[in-house]
Amino acid sequence: AAMEPASLENLQVLYQSPDFIVVNKHWDIRIDSKMWYEKQTVQSQLRHRFPELADPGTYYGFRFCHQLDFSTSGALCVALNRPAAGKAYRCFKERLVTKAYLALVRGYVESSQMTLDFAIGRNTCEGKTHMMCTESTEGCENPKPSKTELTVLEYGLYDGDPVTKVLLQPLTGRTHQLRVHCSAVGHPIVGDFTYSLRADSAPYRMMLHAYLLRLPL
């Protein structure tokens, strides 16, 4: 069910072949972790569900083809062997992968379509070193070109506040790109505690979901 938080048993598999598994990652769960106390991860869910597919030659047992933030849910591709991981890596490196996300953002986005084209770098300001930022932000280090296409799908309310449901298509793959770009145009993602500067804490999760993932293997 959509509202259920993650548990060891409730991993949802979207696609499976001899080379790949695509899972529907829950929100608020790490893909993997070396911390002894972090017992619930996608890696541990996979090992619980598919112990026979774990590769003892890797640290985590599974080869994750890409990353999703702790707070983001949705399609996550896992390679089951080294050649498959190599194929996926080349697809990502050559930008052949199609990705699209669904999000709820604060406020009503006026333009039906927008290209968000802000270079993104690491925030070096005290207390914000865990964050990324746009090039114009004070303390922005090593900004790199970043582009996201935004399409408005629907307008509505969340707990009485105006929100817009949008489709986000990242054309580059910077850390926290969608979250930073939405925040930069004044429409932060609902429930994004970090990029609302700890203000948006009421929603039960961040409303960002990896909706589509296509790899031309």
TrEMBL record:
<dbReference type="GO" id="GO:0009982">
    <property type="term" value="F:pseudouridine synthase activity"/>
</dbReference>
<feature type="domain" description="Pseudouridine synthase RsuA/RluA-like">
    <location>
        <begin position="20"/>
        <end position="184"/>
    </location>
</feature>
<dbReference type="GO" id="GO:0003723">
    <property type="term" value="F:RNA binding"/>
</dbReference>
<dbReference type="InterPro" id="IPR006145">
    <property type="entry name" value="PsdUridine_synth_RsuA/RluA"/>
</dbReference>
<dbReference type="InterPro" id="IPR020103">
    <property type="entry name" value="PsdUridine_synth_cat_dom_sf"/>
</dbReference>
<dbReference type="InterPro" id="IPR050188">
    <property type="entry name" value="RluA_PseudoU_synthase"/>
</dbReference>
<protein>
    <submittedName>
        <fullName>RNA pseudouridine synthase domain containing 1</fullName>
    </submittedName>
</protein>
<comment type="similarity">
    <text>Belongs to the pseudouridine synthase RluA family.</text>
</comment>
<dbReference type="Pfam" id="PF00849">
    <property type="entry name" value="PseudoU_synth_2"/>
</dbReference>
<dbReference type="GO" id="GO:0000455">
    <property type="term" value="P:enzyme-directed rRNA pseudouridine synthesis"/>
</dbReference>
